[in-house]
Amino acid sequence: MSWTLENMADEIIALFPYACSVNLGIGMPTMIAERISAEQNIMIHSENGVLGVKGRPTKDNVSPTLINAGKETITVKAGASYFDSSLSFGMIRGGHIDFCVLGGMEVDSHGSLANWMIPGKKITGMGGAMDLVNGAKTLIVMMNHKNKEGHSKLLKECSLPLTGKNVVDLVITELGLFRPKNGKFEIIKLAPGITTTDLNMPELI
Prior knowledge:
Strand 1 (21-24), helix 2 (30-35) and strand 2 (43-46) form a beta-alpha-beta unit. The strands form two sheets. A nine-stranded mixed sheet has the order 4-3-2-1-5-8-10-11-12, with helices on both faces. Strands 7-6-9 form a three-stranded mixed sheet, with no helix packed on it. The relative contact order is 0.16. The chain has helices at residues 5-13, 30-35, 85-93, 129-135; strands at 21-24, 43-46, 50-55, 75-82, 99-102, 106-108, 113-114, 138-142, 154-155, 170-172, 176-181, 184-190. The chain contains four helices and twelve strands. The protein has one domain: Glutaconate Coenzyme A-transferase (3-Layer(aba) Sandwich), CATH 3.40.1080.10. It starts with a helix and ends in a 15-residue tail after the last strand. By secondary structure, the chain is α/β, with parallel strands linked by helices.
């Protein structure tokens, strides 16, 4: 039985120490903001200039001018702050963000990440990902384990254009939690009922 998106988010949250700073990419990682408890005192950073993102708003407290880097409306916690892009990227490039969680198209056994384009398809650009993969102290990739053809997205070598080379610390999919290490993927934890056969990557574990 594979993990749900909520299960994946909870597994990642369990890795966060008290009062750390976290940047969340668009897509799957946004679920994390909704499930972090106030007691953890985690400060979520958004590269468009917000520190202290709380989660999604309700109809009663939504503000069209309060958004994250993915242009989604957000709420903020007490003590939140706002700043311009130059200060925001100074935080990232200066190594002041403890964790970054990004979505991924491919991760390889050397810790390289491809998550920004498929050649021949329309793209909007890499955004802040190229800074985040190099500036955050710990990079976690949160993605589906297999592509539409049923092949593992954890590969020996990425085939798509890279966002960053040798940058990924951990990968979580609906099947388990993994660490790229020495040209293979170390299995840290598998989802309940999942075996190594289900991973479809025998030469990489």
